[in-house]
Amino acid sequence: MRTSKIALFVLFVVYFFSSIDRSIVGILAQPVKEELLLSDTELGFLTGFAFSAVYMLFGLPMARIADQGRRVNILALCVAFWSIMTALCGMSLNFMQLCLARMGVGVGEAGCLPTSHSLISDYFPPSHRTKALAIYGLGYPAGALAGSIIGGFVLDHWGWRTAFYVVGLPGLLVALATWWVVKEPQRGQSDSSDDPDSSLTEPRSFRDVAAMLCGSQVLRHMLFAMTVLAIFTSPTATFLGAFLVRKFHISYTEVGMIFGISMMLAASFSTLFGGILAQRLARRDQRWLLWFPAISVSIAMPFYVTALLQDSPYHLGYWLFFGALCNATYLAPCYTVLYSIIPPGGRAKAAVIVSILIGLVGQSFGPLLAGIASDMIAADRFGHGFAAACPGGMAPKGAAAVLDAACRGAVVDATQIVLIVTMIITVWPAFHFYLAARKMTPPFGRAL
């Protein structure tokens, strides 16, 4: 058990740095937009599709290797690669160079989730797996919290390029620690022979795993809910930092503190304790693994909408905290349901298929579509000639104060409308979590 705990801690640190390198663009979005003269559409593409599409494309072979090869070595190499590519983001001189560097980050991070989840599933038995996955999942909001605070501070003092160097290069030490400390466990060592899923045929290909996912009514509703939730929550991670700067004219350090504490600190508590609470409730009735996300995601929506209507950045942060506290509870319970259905030999493949749905469909198209909508609404609010009068959403240097105010006002209104609408729609996936729970029948892992 001590070896398992040490391995879990290192995997947590890996996910922590993965989250920093993945999410730091959100806090750096506005200065990057201003220096490189990007539209919100380009910003959405950069933070969403450019990263996630490559992440998903390379996730398929990474998962196949993880289910067959030495996972620890694969993970260590991936950490080193994405850390280098994050640092290279700081050297970008235009949109295309930054886009290619972000794609490189996606290539490296494609190996993180499938290998880590596969390792955790072999280190911990089903009775402890939800808690282990919750602790591991805590790395994402914790990393985003650290990235927001560190990124905002470095940005105010040394600029956005230095911020990429500061968060990227330490990952090389994490890669070395992963290779040195984590031991490769035997596959399936934590799945006892009398587990309901142990008798299932081991899937040999992505087609086999996809067939198992599609054949389960529980998983169909659950994965649909996770995908739609990703589509409509990912724009918040991309545009909230920019919205705070655009509307309230606060420093990037303040943005990092508000964004980090309000969203990511709350999400950290929610991911950990939400997973533990769901596991305890599931001992009474297994359907609580999906009832709990259905309830918490529904409660989150009014908090988010209230936050976005505030006239003070600190009042916004207050309401945002409670929204994030409710919204991030679904990951650990959902992955527990997934790995209770999928046998050990297909879990890395299942993880990457789920990542494709959440990442390629959700986190790729969510920010991109939100950026397109924001540009369209801003152009409508401003009137004719928005693109020419407000390049990058701002008036040119030396422009009249009236033009500057008109440009900024149109962009602020557009961003606020898009974020509010996307958060209202999150009630939809909550309903599908409920439908998935209705399809769960005992014994757990067999008739799901």
UniProtKB/TrEMBL annotation:
CDD domains, from UniProt? MFS_spinster_like
Carries keyword rRNA processing? no
Q: Which InterPro entries match?
A: MFS (IPR011701), MFS_dom (IPR020846), MFS_spinster-like (IPR044770), MFS_trans_sf (IPR036259)
This entry carries the following GO cellular component terms, namely:
membrane
Which keywords does UniProt give here? Membrane, Transmembrane, Transmembrane helix, Transport
Residue stretches spanning the membrane: 45-62, 74-93, 163-182, 222-245, 257-277, 289-310, 316-338, 350-373, 417-437
- Organism's domain of life? Bacteria
The Major facilitator superfamily (MFS) profile domain extends over: 7-440
Main localization of the protein? membrane
Entry's localization field:
Membrane
The answer, when asked if Transport is one of the entry's keywords, is: yes
The record describes its membrane topology as: Multi-pass membrane protein
GO MF, one example:
transmembrane transporter activity
Protein name, per record: MFS transporter
Look up and give the organism this protein is from: Sphingobium nicotianae
